Amino acid sequence: MCIVSQSFFWAWSAKASSGTAPSPYDLYMEFHGAGTVVTGASGGIGEALARRFHHLGAFVVVSDVVEAGITALAAELNAKRPNSALAVTADVSTESGNQQLVATARQFLLQDGRNGIDLFFANAGVGNGALIETTSENDWNLAFNVNVHAHRWAAKYLIEDWLKAGRGYFCSTASAAGLLSQIGSMPYSMTKSAAVAFAESLAITYGDRGIRVSCLCPQGVNTNMLRQGDTPGAGIASDVVRSAGDVLEPDEVAIVVSEAIEQEKFLILPHPQVAEFEQRKAADRDRWLSGMRKLQARVYGKG
User: Fold this and answer.
1) Is there a catalytic annotation at residue 188?
2) What is the CATH number of the domain that holds 231?
3) Helices (H), the chain
4) What pTM was estimated for this model as a whole?
5) For 210-234, how does the pLDDT look when each residue is reduced to its tens digit (9 = 90+)?
6) How many domains does the structure of the chain reveal?
7) Which domain does 57 fall in, by range?
8) Quick one: what percent of the chain has pLDDT higher than 90?
């Protein structure tokens, strides 16, 4: 980790020529002095990300629909470094909530000569719903609004400033389910797959214009979503996740994320085996589907 002056988030790479304006590929990620925003920050991965970024020297705007958790977190971070954190209560399941969050965060992160929003981490997510026959339309809508539309709404209100500046970093929390599917939760599988696709499209469309994108796709992480689920049907999905491999702590994931962002990796896999599973799926999809059906039968006690 290299540390530079607080006024520089995007630093010259070693290959940049002296006196020559850098291309998008001559810039690398630096947390120290960066203006960052993390949604879903009242607990779990979001809280861990905010703490990690702050530890690395970033200014942090923490957001959630639940006020108490982010207020306490911002107070704790500000006690360590005054005026370095702000809590913003926002409902990212709506476009207006994302617009308000971006505007408020930008205002805070432009204070005292700061750069504004350098990195936005769309981490908020829901794990509601189960099967087609048991999931309500409201649950489907909530899953798409939080897990997918929140990402595009945030990007909508970020992209103009980033393109003008020639730099910006958009990160999102999807899931291994977005690459491999999720037994027991069709809304989660669909929306997390869409989140991965959106991140890919963003990276393709704007990567040559200085916009960096990373997509976090973990398996099991010790969060409230895994422990409880948002609906009774989520218990099956949680059981599948636990059986698939190690359950990591949020702090462990945050370290992997920060290191991957510094290297500007698109796909962030705290569970490395997910890459192998994805390769198997691509190599023989029919065989993979058969294997997933067998796993489903075991989980539901039918095999």
Assistant:
1) yes
2) 3.40.50.720
3) 44-55, 67-80, 95-109, 137-144, 150-165, 177-180, 186-206, 224-228, 234-244, 250-262, 273-283, 285-299
4) 0.87
5) 999 999 999 999 887 665 544 445 4
6) 1
7) 28-272
8) 76
